[in-house]
Amino acid sequence: MARKSLMAAAAALAVLAVGTVAAAKDEAVISLTEKSFAETIAKEALVLVKFTAPWCGHCKSTAAPFEEAAQALKGKAVLADVDATVEKELATKYEVKGYPTIKLFANGEFLTEYSGSRDKDGFVKFIERSMQPSIVQLATNDAVDVFLKEHKDAATYVGIKLADDMASAFKKLSFSMRDLIPEKVFFVSLADASVAAESKTLADSKPVDGSVVVVKADGSMEAFADKAADLDKWVRFNAIPAFGEISRDNSQLYTSADLPVVLTFMDSKTPDEKVKDMFNKLAAAKVTEGKALFAWADKDALKSFQDYLGLAGKDPAVAIYSFQSDAKYLYNGDFTEEGLTAWIKKFLSGDLPPTMKSEAVPPANDDPMKIVVGDSWADVVEDASKDVLIMQYAPWCGHCKKAEPELEKAAVKLASVGSVVVAKMDATLNDAPVAYKAKGFPTIHFFPAGGKDPVEHSGGRSADDFVEFIQKHATTKFEIPDAAEASAEVEEDKKDEL
Questions:
Q1: For 261, which DSSP code?
Q2: What is the reported pTM?
Q3: CA distances from 320 to 239, 326, 352 (A)
Q4: Is 59 a catalytic residue?
Q5: Which one from 80, 235, 400, 470 is the annotated catalytic residue?
Q6: Residue 339: which region, alpha, beta or left (left: phi > 0; alpha: psi -120 to 50)?
Q7: What is the pLDDT of residues 445-480, one digit of tens each?
Q8: 397 an active-site residue?
Q9: What is the rounded CA–CA span in Å between residue 324 and residue 304?
Q10: Closest by alpha carbon to 134, among 164, 161, 108, 106?
Q11: Cα torsion angle, 145, 149, 153, 154, sign
């Protein structure tokens, strides 16, 4: 309690200090509360709102460049902060799931989430782009054809007499997509279908009022006339090129597509023409049947991603990767059209097993805390005769470093319980089966004996918490051994080994 009081006092002093500095420096970033939020975004043309948490390191590092941008944009836009830990209803309403979350509002309406670089130039350029019309209004069929010809290397979305929810969704997407992939996507609005019908380019799409037609870089066209709620996914999917680069800036386009990616890594300055031509050929042949995407990544800029997939040192480096399940499928065959096509078809049919990373299986595993690797997961963790608690960790994770010694104590305490196994696995070097992949660290699962459904642990992480959790969920019931006896038994085992 005393510790919490001291922390609260420190936080209060920090808030007071920040307030004093703000007043002295005449800061341009304003602070919004639930009471002032609605009024501010309604009366200002553009408001960029940063949802923060006082303890968030990224928020602290973003504060200075955000203020610099606010100073530079005075008279053009308002930049504001919201403490999401205090204004919880606002955070919930605008789906704030991490910090900082930065969202753009125009005339009281939410437009898009900011995903660019968190520096002054990034913020300023974003606002300056937002001040330009995101939708081009075209009045004649000739103007439509000229525009589409001038932008033939991009995807152009043509909204035809859109109203209400569809018009609103179209406008929001025009902002978000322009920011996500600038110069690769454009949005056009027509007064009615007659303009499109007289266009040499759009006539074949059989345009109707209330629909959206996309003209892709390859000249193909598709029309959308479904619910406004489904427009976002359709627009994003059709903006993805047949074979294009995936980068940190546009990765959201691929992760939101809900499709696996057939991926290769190349040098962006001197790409391997053989690899490039092969992937273009496979994409043009549509061998994935629309069930997977093709992309390439810069092997230097995304080296850590290449290494994570297990493609370090491979040339050509080719894999299928699912952002949704984190499953990886590495290609090790001959780099031929026939070989790659057969491999992709095998994946699409569900007959291709994922590639699992694994360290070498430990030759001995006699300590109270068992070491699990990818290749020993099934034998240790899914042993139906045992009740098993397994922690997946990352060596760099602070929460893992705190939990690991407590788990070790729990393992020692339960060492004499023959039906229980306490284990850990370095998830940066080893893969768990897809169903149990770590989504964060540490990830802890309990596998009851008898093949019962696993239980994910989400409680306290002290040794006693772990022991109580295991005892509660164990199939084979047991009494918790006396601590002194358990420790003595472990020491005796060590003497026997010597």
A1: E
A2: 0.67
A3: 20, 10, 11
A4: yes
A5: 400
A6: alpha
A7: 999 999 999 999 989 999 999 999 999 999 999 999
A8: yes
A9: 19
A10: 106
A11: negative
